[in-house]
Amino acid sequence: MKEYLTVLKKSQLFSGIRENEIELIFDCLKAKLRTYKKGEFVFRQGEYIHYITILVEGTLHIQKDDFWGNRSIVNQINAGEMFGEAYAAPGSEPLLNDVIAIEESKVMFLDIQKILTVCSSACTFHSLLIQNLFYAISAKNRGLVQKLGHMSKRTTKEKLLSYLSEQAKKHKSAAFDVPFNRQQLADFLSVDRSAMSNELCKLRDEGLLSFSRNHFVLLEKG
Q1: Please, which of 30, 66, 130, 187 could form a disulfide with 73 given CB 3.0 to 4.6 Å?
Q2: pLDDT tens across 42-65, in order?
């Protein structure tokens, strides 16, 4: 697991913790590393989990399918990001969504009980780890609020403009790449793909943006 120290150091969970201390965490928190093939489920809806999980390689989608097979992408998880923490605390409800590998991925599992209970050796990094966990959960909640902001828009056009505007601010540039292909973006915004594609073309014709695959450039109104 040492080969993933660089990725883990970028994780918010390990902010301010030195690499040699992260290595100690592997033993203290009984860290486990598992590999998932493309299309394989990391977690399924209805499962109970007892681990803090960090993606160290690959890409995951948190998604949900309804009775008729309509898919909604809740979030994309990239290397270095944590997921499932909202369901890991003792007494938590079962998962509401599936977590699936979009490409071959590797996930690190950390025992939540050992994170929340300071070990007998009183590791200097342990209190910082708990603090980072709190900050990471807060950041995740802010991200969900942002998505709710997009979803609250009434039309596909308004949802697209809300999402793309937020991405431009996030990248601090009018030109940026989004982490989804067309179908995934439609699933993320819970809109019909064809309707979304039509709206994108209209926005391009109106001179509000240009795009090529997942690359977008927002244009100022003339």
Answers
A1: 187
A2: 999 999 988 889 999 999 999 988
pLDDT digits (tens, 9 = 90+) for 75-117: 899 999 998 888 887 778 889 899 999 999 999 998 888 887 7
Q: Which amino acid is at 171?
A: H
Task: Assess contact for 216 and 179: CB atoms under 8 A.
Answer: no
Angle at 99 between CA 95 and CA 105, to 5 degrees: 145
CA distance 216 to 207: 13
- Region 131-146: mean pLDDT is 84
Say which residue the tokens 């990248």 belong to.
171
Tell me how far apart the alpha carbons of residues 108 and 182 are, in angstroms, rounded to a whole number: 30
**Nearest-CA neighbor of 155 among 184, 183, 190?**
190
